[in-house]
UniProtKB/TrEMBL annotation:
It catalyses: D-alanine + 2-oxoglutarate = D-glutamate + pyruvate. Its EC number is 2.6.1.21. The lineage of its organism: Bacteria, Bacillati, Bacillota, Bacilli, Bacillales. Its cofactor is pyridoxal 5'-phosphate. The keyword tRNA processing does not apply. Keywords: Aminotransferase, Pyridoxal phosphate, Transferase. This is D-alanine aminotransferase. Homodimer. PANTHER family: AMINO-ACID AMINOTRANSFERASE (PTHR42743), D-ALANINE AMINOTRANSFERASE (PTHR42743:SF10).
Amino acid sequence: PIILTQSRFTHRDELTYPYEERGLQFGDGVYEVVRIYNGAYYLLEEHIDRLYRSAEAIKIELTVSKEELTNNLIKLLVQNDMTVDGKLYLQLTRGSAPRDHVFPVDTPANMYAYIQDLPRNIKNLETGVSATTEHDARWDYCYIKSLNLLPNVLAKQTAKENGCYEAILHKDGFVTECSASNVYLVKNGTIYTHPTTTKILHGCVRMRIEKFVDDLAIPFNEEGFTIEDISNADELFLTSSTSEVTPIIKVDNKQIADGKPGKITKQLQKAYEEDAA
Ligand code: PDD
């Protein structure tokens, strides 16, 4: 496989980083995951915009323009003869320098990106998944797509150990998002989700959902919802670049409504499929 590092293309095995890499030692960096369908990116511009916003928020300067990066990422698909469904992983760190919490001086940022095959999870999309609820132990700046994913990793692992696909995170009962996706509740025909404050990642798919609900005239309430609201929900679903629009049919071992993907969830799945096609 060919990867992109800074603005160069190289074989994956040729990528070496010094042991004093700030991404490794401090999690001092940001990242993106972009969906690929039939060898083409979906929502690439949105992801690149967010990458630059995340980088700016933690004061990492990119030396490439958005345009140059976009072109390089498209070349990456060509270099790998990509034609199927997959994902791009892109990571940007504050570079490699002798270990010091303080930013290094005159050290260029490190960037690399690679693609991998990733088939759509048809079973999850059609039958739905189960989730646990867990305390959101993350910091105040979750809108930054930071490499510091330890609370997310621990939450998702706990979900897995309970036979679940995702962890629904809450702060004092107020639902923020999931460990690696945004989450929505449907009650009486209205969709409820957390507002795009600094407390959640502003999902690129979430952004599309806002457009779909507009097109479909589905009421969209961004005041959020609580853990208690979940037990009376008509529908629950999550979104992310890798999970698309996935129904949640069980939370903490309790079934949501009739335990089947709901009507509005299915409408949004259809809108997503049409948009991504
Ligand atoms: N995660 N919230 C969190 C905490 C996430 O990590 C993600 C994405 C999302 C959804 O964002 P988007 O719609 O832009 O994919 C929400 C990616 C897929 C990951 O870390 O693998």
